[in-house]
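Notes from hallway chat w/ T.B., transcribed later so I don't forget. T.B. wanted the structure written out for a chain they're using in a teaching module, and asked if we could keep both sequence and structure tokens in one place. Agreed to drop them here.
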Amino acid sequence: MIEGTVHSWEDSPITGAPRVSITVANITERHRTLTLSAVVDTAFTGYLTLPLDSIRELGLVLRGTQPAVLANGTVGQFSVYAGMVTWNGQERLTVIFESDSDPLIGMAMLWGSRLTVDAQEGGDVVIEGLPPQ
């Protein structure tokens, strides 16, 4: 189970950002890890985004570029990396998009999980694995 809390956006007391703590590791140098707070973003269809400084700290290797549709409908090209994420007690090979935003967890990472959010300041965020179908 992965747990976190909801925090209000700086510019609006109404909407909030559900955040959880995740640990990302370099695939070939497993001792190079980074634990960080990531926003759960159900509008993001990918696995995970990280800022360039986190990617460099982990020593991740560029795997190529991939197009992605942004929230405003435009298509951008993004650098793509691979890393290992500890997810519900298991190591999971993960596609990581470079982005200049806070780290984001998307629907591909959430697939096969139940997400529960108490949508209020300080509310609980819980991600737990679903039984296989």
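Follow-up for T.B.: Strands lie at 2-9, 12-25, 33-40, 48-50, 62-69, 75-87, 90-98, 104-105, 113-117, 124-129. Might be a good example for the class.
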